[in-house]
Amino acid sequence: MRFTSKHIDHYRQHGYVVVENFLTAEELANAHQDIENIIPGWLEYADNPNKPMPGHMQDPPRTRRQNRFPFAGEQLNAITLHPDLRAFAAINAGHNNLFCEQADLSFKYQGHRADREQLMHVDYTNHTLVYPTVDQQYWQTAYLIYYTAVDEGLAPTAVCSWQHYKDEILWPTSYKKHQRAALYDNEIKVVAPAGSVLAYSMRTFHRGTAFKRSGVRIGEFVTYAPSDCPWLGIVGWSEQGDNQPFQAWVEKATVEERGLLGFPAPGDSYWNSEALAGVAARFPGMDLSPYKAT
Ligand SMILES: [Fe+2]
Q1: Which residue among 10, 13, 134, 180 is least packed, with the fewest CB closer than 10 Å?
Q2: Pick from 245, 222, 218: which is nearest to 28 by CA?
Q3: 38 CA from centroid of ligand 1 (Å)
Q4: pTM, whole model, 2 decimals?
Q5: Which range of residues forms the domain containing residue 56?
């Protein structure tokens, strides 16, 4: 387990934790290969931002829908559904009945339209229809996985411990500095090597910060949420169902991984003979034997 008891304690106390070098060197190298295929040239520019920026970088996709799980390639998908991300989310929720509700690649450079000082905010308004209470069984866990190193100049995420806003209704969900300076005065900038992960909650104030020098930050937002709560979640995965990477991923994924996207589990009453035939027709490379009635 890559989240140690120290990490778990830190999260409980502060509502966030940074796990440096969460990814192995091999996972990071393979992830970089996937990223190079998805957004060619970005990593090279990250390594040397004094070189001219490749032209296509200046017009990157406009919405995160265009860079959402499942990704072309295997490593980013495997990282998204890494058992330890699930395990840590399960610790936070107190149970393992979870699904992955978000996985978007996020990439920006100095001067990019996303390069700005965000206001201190909490994220819940587009992750739940209602309100994230202290009742742990409904807790979502958000992750930001860093695929490039982040230093003070490269738009570090700023986070403020929930020790500074205990016992209040978190509304409004964002504040300008003059409205609530303490959130900004107590912020910690997440500076970490490539392969690190920031975990935070829907009750944790944070913000993106602007670049101070030329460079790139490539990351991935991943969020896990308790299942069986129709009010939770940012997307429906079938929205990706017409994309070729979706087909490829479904065919190769494990039963557990599919379950994290909301596939009916083996033994679910969904799996009648027509369902088996229809899913086999749609995903000819998928091993359906686990879903066949026993
Ligand atoms: Fe946010």
Answers
A1: 134
A2: 218
A3: 24
A4: 0.93
A5: 5-236
